[in-house]
Amino acid sequence: MDRPGEELQTGAQFTDAAPKLRAIFHAQSQASAGSLHMVGFEDLQARLGARWPRVAERVHMLAERLLQQGLSPSDAWFRYGDAGYIVVFAQLGRTEAGLICAKLVEHLQRMLLGDVDTAAVRVHSAIHEVGGEVLFQSASLHDMLAGAARLNAEAVGQGPAEREAASGWGRVAHQESPVEIVYRPIWDVRKEVLSIYLARATRPRRGRLPLWGYDCVADPNDMQQILALDLSMLRQTMEVYGELYQNQFRCFLSVPVHFETLAAPTRRREYLVALQAIPRELVSFLAFDLVGLPIGVPVSRATEIVTVLRQFSRVVIVQVESGCQDLPALAAAGVHIATLLLPPGAGPKRWGGELTRFAQDVARVKMKAGVQGVDTALLASYADGAGFHYMTGDFIGTWSEYPENALRLTHADLRARIAAV
């Protein structure tokens, strides 16, 4: 019996692809491995309406980039019709591969439309060959997620082997999760707008807290791994923002780059090649967030690095730990914003006076003061009163998969948020 929310369909509706489908499904049945899926954008096409002909090719470019990122080298995909793909997984079974396909459509809807209807996101999974036609089962992302949650709940209390058997993700449970790029808003206090989005690398970990920033690399002392992460961050953020820009989204991006990436000439040259590939129209929306600047670095060295970054950005930001940087040297090097990093769990009793002192010291050398880690209403109130130009943290806005359009946030809005806590 079919599960709720699933429909059986034949491959006859995909006439052009039918011979190839039968051959692939037959080969997979012989090998007893992998799975075959069809991903369609019919709902996305309907919601875009008259815009679809203008954006269709861009949708396909974005879809193919997501497929390249999400599939393994042994998997394959090809287009069928005007609004769909056939995706062949060499190893993953129907459940986990179907979720990957559904999440791809979800990403596209969120990027192009700003919201997602999980009931409308559907994936067709091949299950049988009947009378020369491949039989497909159609399921929505909503039902697939509910089914995954049900399986996980049923697996609670079982041993590791039983949990793996119960979960459709068992075969990939022990693989290292890939690094993801997430974004959260920075509040421009003077202009009263959430217009800048801070990009950050994160690596989810099963049963543990995720890794963040440069903790995502396997060996933080390996400068080549740090460079590789910075190159990946720059490439992915520019690809994402390039798509948003073409769809009339407007915001500013703050992209981290490590001091060590720019310190050695060979690494700097490699990063410079990536910088030169940034489309010129995006440069005015980009800021670089310089991480790991050593204490006591000579002004000439800091100036050299900041000058490189300023050629490809609107401003350069430097992350500062309390009392650990020479602020006049940063100002002399051309840094525009000095950002104070608050530790997890920071509170106003310990940090209230430090917030005021830091903001005043930064203003004294003609830079703008920013603060990261504003996670509570009380900290937001203290930071606002201290005179910070920029704030980010859990209280200002949470992490998300994509940056968003600039959004108005006034002081009255902030006070209302604080009062509501």
Characterization of this structure:
The chain has 421 residues and is of the alpha/beta class. It is built from 15 helices and 16 strands. It has helices at residues 18-31, 42-48, 52-70, 94-113, 141-155, 160-166, 223-246, 259-263, 265-276, 280-283, 299-310, 327-333, 348-364, 377-386, 411-420; strands spanning 7-10, 35-40, 76-80, 84-89, 122-130, 133-140, 180-188, 193-205, 208-212, 252-258, 286-291, 315-320, 337-341, 368-372, 390-392, 407-408. The strands form two sheets. The protein has an eight-stranded mixed beta barrel with strand order 7-8-10-11-12-13-14-15, surrounded by four helices. It is globular. This is GGDEF domain-containing protein. It comes from Nitrospirillum iridis.
Tags for this model:
Alpha-Beta Plaits, alpha/beta, 16 strands, 421 residues, six-stranded antiparallel sheet, 2 domains, 43% helix, disordered N terminus, TIM Barrel, eight-stranded mixed beta barrel, globular
